[in-house]
Write a structure and sequence with these properties.
Blueprint lengths: L7 H8 L3 H8 L7 H13 L6 H8 L4 E6 L5 H16 L3 E6 L4 H13 L4 E4 L6 H9 L4 E4 L9 E6 L1 H13 L5 E5 L5 H16 L7 E3 L4 H13 L4 E4 L2 H14 L8 E5 L3 H4 L6 E4 L2 H16 L8 E4 L1 E3 L9 H6 L1
Parallel strand pairs: 1-2, 1-3, 3-4, 4-5, 5-11, 6-7, 6-8, 8-9, 9-10
Antiparallel strand pairs: 10-12
Helix pairs in contact: 1-2, 1-3, 2-3, 5-13, 8-9, 10-11
Length: 339
């Protein structure tokens, strides 16, 4: 009597999971919980399931594809980063799959699962706090992973990020020297290393320069938060604003235009990242420039080393630079009156 050969679908049904989950579990994919992997593998044994040898060989081969998980394709900073990574990857014979995670840790975890299932050769990811486990498990499974822009303290994941400290201190000193006090700060979210590190750098700069506590708006990396926060800071009496990222910088511009506040006369403004929208204003905006394209290229080359089998390289902190333009490079009327 001939019995039908068990299929992956049979294993999935017996384990109570989807076919794709069963496939990942049998492959040892770390994005599937250990409990689920054990259950699926036991059901495969019970059914005497044997995966197709050709399929196994196919899964173990190189794909020359990398995955790139970024928070947003609307945010010009991440769009430019993705473009730089893709250009560099193409020059080395790699294709890229780009996933936008909408500043959502759960979406990032889902995207990582999909990328791992597609058997990419490596992953570049902009992480959030709370995604340490899934990223570390991917690395431990043998999949090369490099973090870019944001760090995950407490992990040994290779990271490329900019150092905000010197440029933020230079920005605060520049504003204070010209009398643009108090200075308000538009902060990013605290579940990102960039949000928390830039805020800490701003507060440290104020303290080291002998300034009293300055106003801070704790928001998020989007235009609406920049708009809302700028309004609150202006209503609170600030004479200058430093925005903590590109989208909040654009939101700050919109708020000033809506209120009839003349940047470079009524208010000093320093944005983050050297986007054309900031450069091409009637009053060009001073910025803290992270050189995003170089950030992306550096991250790709570290990933390329890992894919090639090199020992994990050291993490890299790239410098950021204050670029002074007319939006902040004027003496405050209040300072002129007391001169």
């Amino acid at each position: 009597m001939n019995f039908p050969i068990p299929t992956l679908k049979d294993v999935a049904a017996a384990a109570g999971v989807s076919v794709s989950t069963a496939s990942r579990a049998l492959a040892g994919n770390p994005v599937i919980s250990q409990e689920t992997r054990d259950r699926v593998q036991q059901r495969a044994i019970d059914l005497n399931y044997r995966p197709n040898a050709q399929a196994r060989a196919l899964r173990s081969s190189r794909t020359n594809i990398i995955g790139v998980a970024i928070p947003s394709l609307v945010n010009p900073f991440f769009a430019e980063m993705a473009a730089a990574i893709q250009l560099e990857a193409t020059s080395q014979g790699f294709s890229t799959i780009i996933s936008s995670t909408s500043e959502d840790p759960a979406q990032l975890s889902d995207s990582l699962e999909v990328l791992a299932d597609l058997r990419v050769d490596g992953i570049l990811a902009v992480p959030y706090r709370g995604t340490e486990k899934v990223l570390t498990e991917l690395q431990e499974s043998g999949l090369p992973v490099v973090l870019v822009d944001r760090e995950l303290p407490g992990t040994d994941l290779v990271t490329v990020a900019s150092d905000p400290g010197p440029s933020l201190k230079a920005a605060v000193a520049h504003l204070a020297k010209l009398g643009h006090l108090p200075v308000g700060y538009l902060s990013g979210p605290m579940n990102t290393s960039t949000g928390s590190r830039r805020l800490a750098a701003f507060l440290t700069a104020c303290r080291e320069l002998g300034l009293p506590e300055q106003p801070v708006y704790r928001g998020g990396y989007d235009r609406e938060e920049g708009y809302r926060g700028t309004g609150q800071l202006i209503d609170g009496g600030v004479r200058s604003i430093i925005a903590g990222d590109t989208m909040m910088s654009i939101g700050a511009l919109e708020a000033c235009h809506a209120r009839g506040v003349a940047i470079g006369r009524d208010l000093a403004l320093i944005g983050y990242d050297d986007h054309p929208v900031l450069r091409l204003q009637a009053c060009p905006v001073s910025v803290i420039d992270q050189q995003v394209a170089e950030l992306g290229r550096t991250a790709f080359h570290l990933l390329f080393e890992l894919i090639a089998g090199a020992s994990p390289p050291a993490s890299v902190h790239t410098p950021s630079t204050l670029i002074i333009r007319p939006s902040s490079n004027f003496t405050s009327p209040a300072k002129e009156a007391t001169s």
